[in-house]
Amino acid sequence: MTAPELDSLRLLVLVGELGSIGQAAATLGIAQASASKRLSFVERRLGLVLLDRTRRGSVLTPDGRVIAGWARRVLTELDGLLDGAEALRTRHEAGLRVAASMTLAEHLVPGWIGELKRANPGLYLGLEVTNSDQVAALAREGKADLGFVESPGSLPGLTSRKVASDHLVVVVSGPHPWARERRPLTSAELASTPLVVREHGSGTRETVDAALRRAGVGPVKPLLELGSASAVRNAVIAGAGPAVISALDVTGHDLVPVTVEGVDFGRVLRAVWPAGRRLDGPAAQLLALATRQQS
């Protein structure tokens, strides 16, 4: 048995609601004669009498009421399918989900997003700020279209591209003894001193630990573990102790940089997205803005 056309099902439902083929036809913008032919065709296709046709109008037979009820459910499901497809299409065309680690979110990503929004005024863009491990997880799981991380480690399941270079700096408050020290600190002195640090999963924390290990003096000794770059910076300003933070975070704050010899605190900041996925639309545009100085 071949299924009736959807327009014929709509017509049958309207006849049941309005009690007239003529009113149902007018609602759909078709001629009454055409509507009557469609309904007769549906009856022949299903092998059922669906309408009692009288001079006072047309009413559904008991079989017609059952079929009309099923037809109404089919049309409701179809409307849901079409609405869902439209929502997906709109999300792909006009939405961008971005995740960024702290330093990138504070200093670099806003400028890239601003340029993207100026070129695409109707673009809806959501930005989630978290540590590098979480950014990578969001990108890997498809919960972010594009991520930006500071982590120096490998990123399984992700494609990455360099967007900027950064350098970490040891900083103290003005009254700290290191602020008056004229000679550079040694890597051993830094490693033996408890520091204000970010939490595990932070790209900055991972970079510091990796740099100290390469220098042969082991990972950092935590004095305080804090959940954001601004919290670390403010703790140093308040005199809690030294920290290693991005050079981008030093300017404009009451912090004293301290030179350390024998440790390389350079790092690469990267954009990430799921491996095997080709970026397009706003995500590709944002990546192009972020990487334009790297080409």
UniProtKB/TrEMBL annotation:
Record bears the keyword Calcium: no
Every HTH lysR-type domain range: 4-61
Keywords: DNA-binding, Transcription, Transcription regulation
InterPro entries associated with the record: LysR_HTH_N, LysR_subst-bd, WH-like_DNA-bd_sf, WH_DNA-bd_sf
Key word Iron present: no
GO molecular function: DNA binding
Similarity comment text for this entry: Belongs to the LysR transcriptional regulatory family.
PANTHER family: HTH-TYPE TRANSCRIPTIONAL REGULATOR, HTH-TYPE TRANSCRIPTIONAL REGULATOR CYSL
Protein name per Swiss-Prot or TrEMBL: DNA-binding transcriptional LysR family regulator
Lineage of the organism: Bacteria, Bacillati, Actinomycetota, Actinomycetes, Pseudonocardiales
